[in-house]
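Lab notes, practical 5.
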Amino acid sequence: MRYPEQYLQFIEKFNEGEYYECHDLLEEIWMEDKSDKFLQGLLQLAVGLYHRECGNIKGARWMFGNARKYLARYAPSRWGLDIDQIILYIQSCEQALPDADSIPYAKAKAMAFPSLRLLIDQS
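Output from the prediction step:
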């Protein structure tokens, strides 16, 4: 399958930890079909990670919950991604969040947090 260039760039930026840039890359193709909850779920995962990095724990928790809910519809895989693996990752992110609505930026940046490398299955 041939994937949109923005999707491939999203994967690359996600793997580099550039979560803010991820949003801009997928938003354009998601806006063409807002009923596509797969793309919305990926967007919300990236936004959740960005919120977490900035210390907005409440926002991260909200985005992770939405991302998990939207992506679960597409398990076990979609567009070459292992959705089951992504769901497990989101759950580990939710568990790693501190019990607070927000934390200082420096504390958020220094905090150990689960990571995930997205890989497109070419088979």
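Observations recorded by the TA: Residues 38 and 115 are 20 Å apart (CA to CA). The chain has one domain: 5-110.
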